[in-house]
Design brief:
mainly alpha; 86 residues; 3 helices; elongated
Length: 86
């Protein structure tokens, strides 16, 4: 059977009681590795914002500021991984 455009979208249901085996989240990295990822993420974000401030003060073109998205993403992903324990 094919999904129709009129069908309602799938819903993600969260189970706060955690009485299902699929609701269990087991951390797969050690606390030391989480610290390392958090430290990397914070340093990466700080460096990105410093570079952005310098580029804004110099008046660099938007094209020169666009690669900062990759640096910002790397820092944000590291922090999210540390907080999610994955």
């Amino acid at each position: 059977m094919y999904a129709q455009f009129s069908d309602p979208p799938f819903k993600i249901v969260f189970n706060p009681e955690g009485n299902e085996p699929a609701d269990v989240c087991i951390p797969n990295i050690s606390p030391k590795e989480r610290q390392k990822r958090m430290r990397f993420g914070i340093i990466q974000l700080a460096a990105t914002f410093i570079i952005l401030a310098i580029l804004l003060l110099v008046g660099a073109d938007k094209l020169w500021r666009s690669p900062l998205f990759a640096l910002f993403s790397a820092g944000a992903v590291s922090i999210f991984q540390a907080l999610d324990k994955t």
